[in-house]
Amino acid sequence: MSKLNLVFLGLILSPYVVAEVPTPAKLLAYNCFNCHGDNGVSKGGVPSIKGLPANILELHLKNYRDGTQASTVMGRIAKGLNDDEIKELSSFIATLK
Ligand code: HEC
Questions:
Q1: Residue identifier of the C-alpha nearest atom 42 of ligand 1
Q2: Overall CATH class of domain 22-94
Q3: Ligand 1 mean position, distance from CA 39 (Å)
Q4: Measuring from atom 12 of ligand 1, which residue has the nearest CA?
Q5: pLDDT grade, residue 43 (50/70/90)?
Protein backbone atom coordinates (compact mmCIF):
# COMPACT_ATOMS: atom_id res chain seq x y z
CA MET A 1 0.00 0.00 0.00
CA SER A 2 1.39 3.41 -0.93
CA LYS A 3 1.96 6.14 1.62
CA LEU A 4 -0.85 8.17 0.10
CA ASN A 5 -3.28 5.28 0.47
CA LEU A 6 -2.31 4.92 4.10
CA VAL A 7 -3.03 8.61 4.70
CA PHE A 8 -6.48 8.23 3.16
CA LEU A 9 -7.15 5.11 5.17
CA GLY A 10 -6.19 7.04 8.29
CA LEU A 11 -8.60 9.83 7.41
CA ILE A 12 -11.42 7.39 6.86
CA LEU A 13 -10.83 5.44 10.07
CA SER A 14 -9.92 8.29 12.41
CA PRO A 15 -13.45 9.31 13.49
CA TYR A 16 -14.11 5.75 14.61
CA VAL A 17 -10.87 5.47 16.51
CA VAL A 18 -11.13 8.85 18.22
CA ALA A 19 -14.77 8.88 19.32
CA GLU A 20 -15.42 6.72 22.35
CA VAL A 21 -18.75 5.04 21.79
CA PRO A 22 -20.24 3.98 25.13
CA THR A 23 -21.28 0.33 25.25
CA PRO A 24 -24.96 -0.34 25.98
CA ALA A 25 -23.97 -1.64 29.42
CA LYS A 26 -22.24 1.64 30.17
CA LEU A 27 -25.32 3.60 29.16
CA LEU A 28 -27.50 1.45 31.41
CA ALA A 29 -25.05 1.89 34.26
CA TYR A 30 -25.29 5.70 34.13
CA ASN A 31 -28.89 5.28 35.27
CA CYS A 32 -27.75 3.14 38.22
CA PHE A 33 -25.18 5.76 39.22
CA ASN A 34 -27.97 8.33 39.73
CA CYS A 35 -28.88 6.50 42.92
CA HIS A 36 -25.84 4.35 43.65
CA GLY A 37 -23.35 7.20 43.23
CA ASP A 38 -20.69 7.96 40.65
CA ASN A 39 -19.06 4.71 39.58
CA GLY A 40 -21.30 2.86 42.03
CA VAL A 41 -19.85 4.50 45.16
CA SER A 42 -22.84 5.66 47.18
CA LYS A 43 -22.90 8.85 49.23
CA GLY A 44 -25.27 7.12 51.64
CA GLY A 45 -28.93 6.12 51.65
CA VAL A 46 -28.54 3.39 49.04
CA PRO A 47 -25.89 0.65 49.11
CA SER A 48 -22.71 1.01 47.03
CA ILE A 49 -22.56 -1.44 44.14
CA LYS A 50 -18.93 -0.95 43.21
CA GLY A 51 -16.77 -3.93 44.07
CA LEU A 52 -19.56 -6.49 43.93
CA PRO A 53 -18.65 -9.50 41.77
CA ALA A 54 -20.60 -9.93 38.53
CA ASN A 55 -22.37 -13.12 39.68
CA ILE A 56 -23.61 -11.43 42.86
CA LEU A 57 -24.88 -8.38 40.95
CA GLU A 58 -26.61 -10.68 38.51
CA LEU A 59 -28.24 -12.63 41.34
CA HIS A 60 -29.47 -9.44 43.08
CA LEU A 61 -30.96 -8.05 39.88
CA LYS A 62 -32.71 -11.30 38.94
CA ASN A 63 -34.05 -11.75 42.47
CA TYR A 64 -35.32 -8.17 42.50
CA ARG A 65 -36.91 -8.73 39.11
CA ASP A 66 -38.82 -11.86 40.08
CA GLY A 67 -39.64 -10.50 43.56
CA THR A 68 -37.61 -13.09 45.51
CA GLN A 69 -35.63 -10.23 47.02
CA ALA A 70 -37.73 -7.53 48.71
CA SER A 71 -37.11 -3.98 47.54
CA THR A 72 -38.54 -0.49 47.40
CA VAL A 73 -37.34 0.54 43.95
CA MET A 74 -35.01 -2.14 42.59
CA GLY A 75 -37.84 -4.52 41.66
CA ARG A 76 -39.31 -1.94 39.32
CA ILE A 77 -35.92 -1.09 37.84
CA ALA A 78 -34.90 -4.72 37.35
CA LYS A 79 -38.19 -5.49 35.59
CA GLY A 80 -36.98 -3.23 32.78
CA LEU A 81 -33.89 -5.37 32.19
CA ASN A 82 -33.70 -8.59 30.19
CA ASP A 83 -31.25 -11.43 30.95
CA ASP A 84 -28.65 -10.21 28.44
CA GLU A 85 -28.76 -6.67 29.80
CA ILE A 86 -28.41 -7.93 33.38
CA LYS A 87 -25.40 -10.03 32.36
CA GLU A 88 -23.63 -7.22 30.50
CA LEU A 89 -24.46 -4.64 33.14
CA SER A 90 -23.18 -6.89 35.93
CA SER A 91 -19.91 -7.63 34.12
CA PHE A 92 -19.45 -3.91 33.44
CA ILE A 93 -20.11 -2.82 37.05
CA ALA A 94 -17.84 -5.59 38.37
CA THR A 95 -14.91 -4.12 36.41
CA LEU A 96 -15.27 -0.57 37.76
CA LYS A 97 -12.04 0.73 39.23
C1 HEC B 1 -34.08 5.14 42.01
C2 HEC B 1 -32.80 4.82 42.64
C3 HEC B 1 -32.07 3.56 42.17
C4 HEC B 1 -31.65 3.27 40.88
C5 HEC B 1 -31.85 4.09 39.59
C6 HEC B 1 -30.95 2.00 40.96
N7 HEC B 1 -30.94 1.53 42.25
FE8 HEC B 1 -30.11 -0.22 42.89
N9 HEC B 1 -30.82 0.11 44.76
C10 HEC B 1 -31.58 1.21 45.14
C11 HEC B 1 -32.09 0.99 46.49
C12 HEC B 1 -32.95 1.96 47.29
C13 HEC B 1 -31.62 -0.27 46.90
C14 HEC B 1 -31.95 -1.05 48.19
C15 HEC B 1 -33.06 -2.05 47.82
C16 HEC B 1 -34.39 -1.36 47.55
O17 HEC B 1 -35.00 -0.85 48.49
O18 HEC B 1 -34.87 -1.33 46.37
C19 HEC B 1 -30.78 -0.78 45.80
C20 HEC B 1 -30.10 -2.00 45.83
C21 HEC B 1 -29.31 -2.48 44.81
C22 HEC B 1 -28.48 -3.65 44.88
C23 HEC B 1 -28.23 -4.54 46.10
C24 HEC B 1 -26.98 -4.07 46.77
C25 HEC B 1 -26.73 -4.77 48.07
O26 HEC B 1 -25.55 -4.89 48.43
O27 HEC B 1 -27.69 -5.15 48.74
C28 HEC B 1 -27.89 -3.81 43.67
C29 HEC B 1 -26.94 -4.92 43.23
C30 HEC B 1 -28.36 -2.73 42.83
N31 HEC B 1 -29.22 -1.93 43.56
C32 HEC B 1 -28.01 -2.56 41.51
C33 HEC B 1 -28.51 -1.56 40.69
C34 HEC B 1 -28.25 -1.49 39.27
C35 HEC B 1 -27.35 -2.44 38.49
C36 HEC B 1 -28.93 -0.40 38.81
C37 HEC B 1 -29.04 0.10 37.37
C38 HEC B 1 -29.75 -0.78 36.46
C39 HEC B 1 -29.60 0.20 39.94
N40 HEC B 1 -29.34 -0.53 41.05
C41 HEC B 1 -30.39 1.36 39.86
C42 HEC B 1 -31.83 2.34 44.39
C43 HEC B 1 -31.61 2.46 43.02
A1: 35
A2: mainly alpha
A3: 13
A4: 46
A5: very high
* pLDDT greater than 90 at residue 4: no
What are the backbone dihedrals phi and psi of residue 93, each rounded to the nearest 5 degrees, phi first? -65, -35
One DSSP character per residue, 5-48 reads HHHHHHHHHHHHHHS-PPPHHHHHHHHHHHHH-GGG---SSS--
19 pLDDT more than 70: no
Band (pLDDT 50/70/90 cuts) for residue 41 is very high
Model confidence, pTM: 0.84
Q: Break the chain into its structural domains and give their ranges.
A: 22-94
The C-alpha atoms of residue 39 and residue 92 are separated, in whole angstroms, by: 11
Task: Say if ligand 1 is within 6 A of residue 91 CB.
Answer: no
